[in-house]
Amino acid sequence: MLLYTWQEIIGIVLAAIIVDLLVGDPKWPTHPVIWMGRWITWLEKKLLPPQVTFKPRAQLLRGLVLTGLTLLFVTSLMYGIWFLADYLHEWLGYVVSVWFISTTIAVKGLKDAAYLVLRPLRDGNLADARKYTGYIVGRDTGDLPESELSRAVVETVAENTVDAVFSPIIYALLGGAPLAMLYRVSNTMDSMVGYRNAKYLYFGRASARWDDVMNWVPARITGGLLALTALLMPRCSFVRSLKAIFKFASKHPSPNSGIPESAVAGALGIELGGLNIYGGIAQERARMGWPLRELNLTDIQLAVQMMYGATFLTIGGLICAWVLH
Question: Which domain holds residue 263?
Fold first, then answer.
């Protein structure tokens, strides 16, 4: 990306955001994340064969190999694709960059996933709402009432505003498509092996920690943008959003996820976190925000609006930077 000027990079990222807003996740050709997942699955089988038992230290080292090889492979491949496209024609390089960056952003996809739950909730169809909520969260959803289904979706939208929107945008601005894809594969590894269970406690630790590092700065930028968005929305509070970040974010088990969740909870005057059931086992998660009112299905729409508001603030800022550069 050193061959691109800062103005060109801004233009490419702006175009990628617009492509995602209009098109969303592509159905064809196969989404790059699917290929990433296949690579990670293949490499995991090689490094952690199920018929062999490894000691914790060996699992940690093998997990580190998985992380390092995957980051190197995906970033090198993406840089090679972009370099070849740019070598053939400058505009082909632009198109390739825009398309690949757009696949790392998921504003429309996140909204569609949230509304897949919202629509049956509006119709009073709890069975479908529980089913679709189960597609996007890991907790048990079979018996959840409307308020808990709404909480699950709001938490997902808030948390993924970092992972699916602002982290890829920030890394694309810093290093174009190669760095955006490096972030996306980092996040994909975390979602596949970064669990604190018997299988991945040691093997997935490197991937989980690396994802935390990659999201550290973007999470804090996202929190600020979500709070600013509260200024533009009726019945939302900018001050309460900021206060919630400082008061509650550090209580979350993730060093990053508590920031956007606290920002949204504070802005809307609701409480996120609480009792979740995973595989029949109850877990109490950190509570964020003040329960000034009961959660309901409209909070799903409000959380999506906050995500879009922060996205449009970013678009406006990038346009100003592009014009003034």
Answer: 6-324
